Predict the 3D structure of the following.
Amino acid sequence: MKILEKVQKIKEACMSTKDLQRNINVSEAYHLWSHLVQRYSVLHITETFEPFIRDGDLKIILATGKNTLSKNIGILEKEAVLYGLPLPLRPPKQTKVSGTSDPFSDRHIYRRVLRGIQSFLPTHMAAFMHSTTPKIRELFFNFMIEELKLYDKYLEYGKLKGYTIMPPAYSQ
């Protein structure tokens, strides 16, 4: 896949936006845009939860997740601009939560983030399956692998902290 990517990069360097748009299909354009919308949303939710986290480990994990989200947003924005896709509305740069109450427990925040990661896995798979351009397919493949690794580590962390909902043991 690396050789095809390099050949495509050389080819794309000489192309206009209009010509580049002919290289991707409508599904790929949709998935690029949709992934960006979803990443913006997840970043906004993460920033909303941040002030309520008491567990130091969870703070570090969510900060790492924010860095990954920001990196992925940068990649997706670059691709959207390259192909002339309109950028979706971005959430505010900073999220301020007013009030002094503490509406979210660390367990609730953990579970909400876990559900978010779980919901992204099929999204990445669908984007990968609908992509015909090697470069775009590799982008979604890398996002999917990164998300799987995050999920695995995050789930183990939750089990260690007692945040996960554990099904009963099966016995015969």
The two ends are 48 Å apart (CA to CA). The chain has one domain: 21-93+102-161. The longest helix spans residues 134-161.
